[in-house]
């Protein structure tokens, strides 16, 4: 499964390939998010919305009517994550503490193209966490006494490479620089895919949690050690976690758009300095 961006890149138009046909009573996630398979399982790699399949399985097998109810009980409740929710607008104690979502826009009418910030409260929805709650979550995942995943083989999935080296799936992962380039700085007025192109490609793989650094020094200047798992999120959030070293580094803002050069490069520099100092 991919995303609408995958259709755009592969076929030149989101609408060129008709979406999958689902019956009227199908789950809204299936109707709105699911895409065609771009390749047979195991024969390629495409970051997409397959996580929604997991959400449907959790709803059906987890003993709760809704996915967020399962998460509230089995994850947030189990770890005491009292300032985390999937419905921030309905949680006053979280909503009033939130860092307001803003967007950086450039005023093209001025000669110097001065940037300014505008409110984007409409984009404040979905999973919302405090930094202290995230520390509880990642701390538990790295702990030998993990509360969420009590079987070692399940915890290991977050840190074990999934793709066979040099396989087509692994080559597909490396060919799309966005899969790992979020750990690299951006260049002004250059697309992120070009900014992040490395030759040869870095020693990276993929786990159940995200991108995996497989060699020290494979990301130039980063000081991010091998064994580190990393991922990014909207709007400009990057986290890194290394179980062997017992370290987790996170940088988050509420600034849109994604890949804003100033915000992204500040996050990358923070991670580089944090790993250099504490890693």
UniProtKB/TrEMBL annotation:
Hydrolase recorded as keyword: yes
Molecular function via GO: hydrolase activity
Gene3D superfamilies attached to this UniProt entry: DD-peptidase/beta-lactamase superfamily (3.40.710.10)
Keywords, sorted A to Z: Hydrolase
Protein name: Uncharacterized protein
């Amino acid at each position: 499964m991919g995303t609408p961006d995958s259709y755009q890149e592969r076929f030149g138009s989101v609408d060129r390939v008709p979406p999958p046909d689902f019956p009227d009573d199908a789950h809204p996630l299936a109707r709105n998010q699911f895409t065609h398979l771009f390749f047979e399982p195991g024969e390629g790699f495409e970051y997409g919305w397959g996580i929604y399949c997991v959400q449907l399985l959790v709803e059906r097998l987890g003993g709760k009517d809704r996915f967020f109810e399962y998460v509230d009980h089995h994850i947030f409740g189990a770890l005491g994550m009292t300032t985390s929710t999937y419905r921030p607008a309905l949680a006053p104690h979280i909503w009033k503490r939130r860092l307001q979502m803003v967007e950086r826009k450039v005023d093209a009418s001025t000669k110097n193209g001065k940037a300014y910030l505008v409110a984007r409260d409409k984009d404040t929805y979905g999973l919302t966490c405090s930094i202290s709650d995230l520390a509880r979550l990642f701390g538990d995942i790295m702990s030998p006494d993990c509360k969420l995943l009590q079987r070692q083989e399940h915890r290991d999935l977050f840190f074990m490479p999934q793709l066979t080296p040099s396989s087509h799936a692994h080559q597909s992962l490396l060919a799309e620089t966005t899969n790992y380039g979020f750990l690299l700085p951006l260049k002004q007025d250059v697309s992120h895919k070009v900014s992040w192109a490395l030759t040869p490609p870095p020693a990276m793989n993929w786990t159940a949690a995200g991108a995996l650094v497989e060699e020290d020094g494979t990301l130039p200047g980063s000081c991010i050690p091998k064994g580190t798992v990393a991922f990014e999120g909207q709007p400009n959030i990057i986290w890194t976690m290394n179980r062997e070293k017992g370290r987790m580094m996170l940088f988050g803002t509420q600034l849109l758009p994604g890949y804003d050069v100033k915000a992204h490069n500040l996050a990358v520099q923070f991670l580089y300095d944090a790993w250099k100092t504490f890693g």
